[in-house]
Amino acid sequence: TKHVIKNIQWVTANNFTVERGRQQIEELISTWDIHESWLHHSEFLEEEELKDSKRYHYRACWGIPTRRKPIPRATASVYFVIVISKFKPDTSPVEVFYRLESSRLIRRPEQCQFREKWLKDIIENKIACIERL
């Protein structure tokens, strides 16, 4: 059986704002199959001007707070980039990429379904590292 990759309808370049970008990242995250115990917050980091595009950088920081540990021992970040091409028409949708904090692999939401296991792996590795120190 073929797994359906969930994506959203991305805003066009002429309708893009920094806040709209953050809202759309939240909309994308809402399509991910992640247990409700995970909490996150997203934030805009910076705007980057390149020769061929403008890039808007965001971060979503994830953790699993509990009653006994309301501040998680470790968190996992997912970094997003929204790209507005200077060569494509203003009416074309923005391009979106993301990567995990522990990885250099860049993913596109329409090509790869997000996996909760990636967040778990980052946090488990951080906790193991903390315990070794």
From TrEMBL:
InterPro entries noted in UniProt: AKAP, AKAP_28
Entry GO CC: cAMP-dependent protein kinase complex
GO molecular function: protein kinase A regulatory subunit binding
Highest taxon of the lineage: Eukaryota
Protein name, per record: AKA14 protein
UniProt organism field: Climacteris rufus
Gene designation per UniProt: Akap14
